[in-house]
Amino acid sequence: MKHTFSAAFTALLLLILTACGTTAAPTKESTKKPFSFASWVDDLSRPDIVALTPEQALEAYNASRHSAVSKREGAGGVSKRWPEGLGMCFPSDMHAPADDAVAIIALFVEKGQEKVTLRQDPSGFRNVIGVHGQLTVDAYCYRGGRNQWMCPERTVTCLIVAQAVGHLMDSCTWDNSVGGSYWVLDRELFLNVWDGAFLSVENS
């Protein structure tokens, strides 16, 4: 009798363990987060991490761009993943190619803690920080409620610029193009990423 009970108990225990073993665990696919250019910039800046190349970063973005988080809404773009709402997206006709953006990110990260000095431009209040292909990165000083250079001379590191472009790409990239503004230095300075051709037309 004891033998029969023991055998039955063992069979029941095996059945329970088998059932538990077949419980579906979260797959890598179901827990996979959308690709983040800002996180990629962080990886690039860390010597202990083998980061994706600019080309691989774009491929990773394209592989995840159809997710709910990456989906574009509205004709003028939308703030999709802004940290604390620090920025805005430009209309698509002001966008520059995304491959130019990842390339300039890599260049700024390589310069790391090197300083970029921002001062009033003779033609106005814009400072062009970098150009790659069709893409231009420039800075505005915003003080006193108006877009004008009312700030003292300022400096930012190249890494801060790279991080700003990365955040912009997270929120303002669609159809392999990017354009927008991102605040830095306690909302006193904002960086623009856009098509240099549009910039030339605006200044003409």
Automatic annotation (TrEMBL):
Keywords: Signal. Residues 1-24 form the signal peptide. This is Ecp2 effector protein domain-containing protein. It comes from Neurospora tetraspora.
